[in-house]
Specification:
The chain is mainly α and about 180 residues long. It is built from 7 helices and no strands.
Length: about 180
């Protein structure tokens, strides 16, 4: 009974984290699409600061929740250890984690700080919009990999993992 409760709790936390993660990425896309030209400093800075807050208060905690709950579930469930789809999901999860932290989270917070500095007159306005295309692409790529990850978790395709014993077939069996 306790194992079932633990399994359901981890699954619930993983789903809540996933929903928060995808919602944060979609919110960032919407905010990014509504960014005015950096010459409209007040509006531009307001949206950049909002994007930084979404990244800091929704994206980062959701990412952590998904990663931690997924790793704990994998460690505690022997069935997951032998399922190939789980290992593919883990690999795509690592890509998502790294991509989120390096290409979305950090740049969003940096851009929010730059926008604050620009409002105070301490930052060059010409460099405010220099990374917009890269950010847009990064969010879409991470969202696409996240969708693949979700599909793996929902459909659980049969992806076989060969054990060391199974991979060593005698030469007579190969012909």
């Amino acid at each position: 009974m306790a194992e079932m409760t633990r399994h359901k709790t981890l699954k619930f936390l993983h789903i809540v984290g996933t929903v928060g993660f995808c919602a944060a990425l979609l919110a960032l896309l919407v905010l990014h699409a509504s960014l005015p030209d950096p010459s409209q400093l007040q509006q531009f800075a307001s949206i950049r600061i909002a994007m930084g807050n979404v990244a800091k208060w929704l994206l980062l905690p959701s990412t952590g929740l998904v990663v931690v709950s997924g790793l704990i579930a994998m460690a505690l469930n022997d069935v997951y250890k032998n399922a190939g789809w789980v290992w593919v999901k883990l690999a795509t999860g690592v890509l998502i984690l790294e991509g989120t932290l390096v290409y979305v989270q950090a740049p969003m917070e940096r851009a929010a700080n730059d926008a604050r500095s620009a409002l105070e007159g301490e930052f060059d306005l010409s460099s405010l919009g220099s990374v917009l295309g890269a950010e847009w692409s990064s969010i879409w790529v991470i969202l696409a990999v996240a969708v693949v990850n979700i599909v793996l978790g929902v459909y659980r395709p049969r992806i076989l993992r060969q054990s060391a014993a199974n991979s060593e077939t005698p030469a007579s069996e190969e012909s």
